Fold COX assembly mitochondrial protein.
Amino acid sequence: MNAINKQTENGKAIGAACRHSGRALEDCFRRNPRVAKADIFDGWKEMNEYMLQKKLDIVPPPPDPVVQRRAEPSDKDASKTEARAQTK
């Protein structure tokens, strides 16, 4: 029973954090597929009511990290590198 309560509270905390950061409820569901949607919604709703009551603004989250791929050398770059290696 204690584990179920922790899961519920975790879902509520996630929902509240999503609302506080200004994320849409659908985005919150998509970002947390393993968490019960009902728990996320409860937390989001509670935080929404609290923020309206206290007249709080959202706190924008930091941007999502961008995954950068290593640039593969093009054919021109490869030929230049080979030419430099041959001259040395």
